[in-house]
Amino acid sequence: MAAYGALVSLMHIIDTLEKHPSPPISIDTKQVQSITQIxxxxxxxxxxxTSPLADSHEADPxxxxxxxxxxxxxxxxxxxxxxxxxSGSTVVEDHDFYQNLQKVIEEMNLINQEVxxxxxxxxxxxxxxxxxxxxxxxTVKENVIVGSEEVFLEVLDKLTGYKLDxxxxxxxxxxxxxxxxxxx
Length: 184
Hints:
Layout: H1 2-19, H2 29-47, H3 61-87, H4 95-127, H5 149-160, E1 171-172, E2 180-181
Antiparallel strand pairs: 1-2
Helix pairs in contact: 1-2, 1-3, 2-4, 3-4
């Protein structure tokens, strides 16, 4: 899910900027808070989102739109960081930066509003009688662990068990598709 990865990446950039001791990169606090709220909301949505195109090889337009907006935000922020580093100053008044970042925030906010509307519609569909709710495929589902219950319990035991000898357990495979435990 490229959109979710992009959201995590953007939050990592923002966290790094906020926690980096020197030189501090100046970004408007209100814009950072706005981006953080939108990103958190979109991550929560994607945690339970199932693409209607999940079984096909096509990219989901909503996920693509989220990813594109996030990549644009990263580009704007990273360009500003480069400008500040090249100028040697931590305070670079860049009106274009703030405008460009605001445009990206507005686009991400529009996407977030559309997502919230779709969640409301989905909730209304779920509240209708069973006969009426058998329309098109739902886009939101609960988190469910798919796979062998026995393998899951084995991994859980190895991670939470009270063994004196600790071991590294690599878990490989694409999330949601495959789970392999190597005991090497």
